[in-house]
Amino acid sequence: MNRPNRLRTVAARALGVLLSCAVSSPAFAQTSAPQWTGTWSAAPAVTSDPGFENQTIRQIVHTSIGGTAARLRFSNLFGAQPVTIGNVHLAQRASGAQTVAATDRVATFNGQSYVTIPAGSSVSSDTIAFPVPTLGDIAVSVHVPSRTPPNSTGHVAGLQDVYIAPGDASGDASFAGGVANAAGERSYYFLTNVDVVNAGATGAVVTFGASITDGLSSAPNTNGRWPNRLAGRLIGAGMNVGVLNQGISGNNFFSDGAASGQAGLARFGRDVLQQANVKWVIVSDDAVNNLIGGDPPTAQRLVDAFRELIAQAHAANVKIICSTLTPFQGVSRWTPGIENTRQAVNAFLRDKSSGCDGLLDQALALGGAGIGASAFAAAFNSGDNLHPNDAGMQAIADAANLGWFAALPAVRAPSGCGRLAPGEGLLVGQTLASCDGRFSLTLGRDGYLAIVVNGAAIWSSSAAGEPGVAMRFAEDGALSLYNANGARVWQSTKTDAAGYAYMQRDGNLVVYSTAGKPVWATGTATGAAQ
């Protein structure tokens, strides 16, 4: 079977339609309803398994953010025929293949224990009430009741032991009879995503690339990939951001492979833009494989590929952080001409006119002689002159600017008495006074908005919302209160044509459209002049 052809065959049907939804709320309604955010993922490609039959696969997932509930996604994207799975269990991992029995939960699919996944498709489980740990290990156990073809949809080089037992052992905490997969490839099979309900999550960042992103030379079973280390930095900084690894070893921008997946340009829409609550993407090392793949493209062709991804990300309201191409002098296919191409691409990425929303300068972080280094620093070289070791993985994660993922939107100070234009607002302790100074809109130390006159509050957002740390008149026409994780915890009614908000001299706080019509008010007018 020509597996690259299978990849091309399913490419068109694999590209889904991005959906977006807007929830309109009445005045004073809480709008921070929980939504799904990705905590873990593995990019789908083709594995080299011999097929499964009446066996249970127990796969270990290391989360980024936690949550109060979970859902699982399974894929048969590159399968040639339907695959049936079921009796799926989710539990906290104890050690090895063993789980904590008291945490075990059963996953269903539209209420059913088993589901058949058509060729070229994927399925999501129903919501599972499960306390997902932060930066913790969970086990997903899947019974495969009937014979499946070889070369399943999955992820090769997962760097995590996968355990297989005969029969249906999904609910067995000890996983008796289970052994680490004999092939030793540590692949993930069928499982591609774990999403969580986390009301405070600000979004997910997808790390998109090839073997460096996949963590190829990091130590197995240690979660030492640079995306894992980035997740640790984010959590350590109090930032509630999911990190999703969509690296595939061998992947490149332009050509399909079997284990290396669809071409980066072809899979970007699915593997990045369709992730749950994706807000950012870091585009990493695909272009390196193009340069060492035997038919190196021009710098212009690689620049055009980056521009295409930048345009796709921005069209989906996803911020894109571009990574410079890491050095690889010492690899057999390195030439001075290829090095010149790499340097030219990096010059484009470092230029502020590139269109990138940020730059992860991996070349600078790993190079041994400054910005123009053509080879790894010895301390970061795994030994093959191409992949960073564990210290190099940490160096990449440390080079990321956590400010890219800042939770709160920018808030400008009010530009006039009593008036807020879109983008202007208040931080805790700040006040917007009416032009006669009688009434004040204040964001108090308790985190609630209040209208105060003569030291007494005549209105407060505490009646219908949660406390926050910043209030902003948003571009959607709503006065919005945000918590420290960037989630809206209260908002006024939206208007399609945002004009301004006004703390009037009669004590009424009013939002006006661009046509000058009032669209929302606190209803606190005292009868005094406006």
Automatic annotation (TrEMBL):
InterPro entries: Bulb-type_lectin_dom, Bulb-type_lectin_dom_sf, GDSL_Rv0518-like, SGNH_hydro, SGNH_hydro_sf. Keywords: Signal. Residues 1-29 form the signal peptide. It holds the Pfam family Lipase_GDSL_2. Residues 417-524 form the Bulb-type lectin domain. It comes from the Bacteria. PANTHER family: GDSL-LIKE LIPASE/ACYLHYDROLASE, PUTATIVE (AFU_ORTHOLOGUE AFUA_2G00820)-RELATED, GDSL-LIKE LIPASE_ACYLHYDROLASE, PUTATIVE (AFU_ORTHOLOGUE AFUA_2G00820)-RELATED. This is Bulb-type lectin domain-containing protein. It comes from Caballeronia grimmiae. The lineage of its organism: Bacteria, Pseudomonadati, Pseudomonadota, Betaproteobacteria, Burkholderiales.
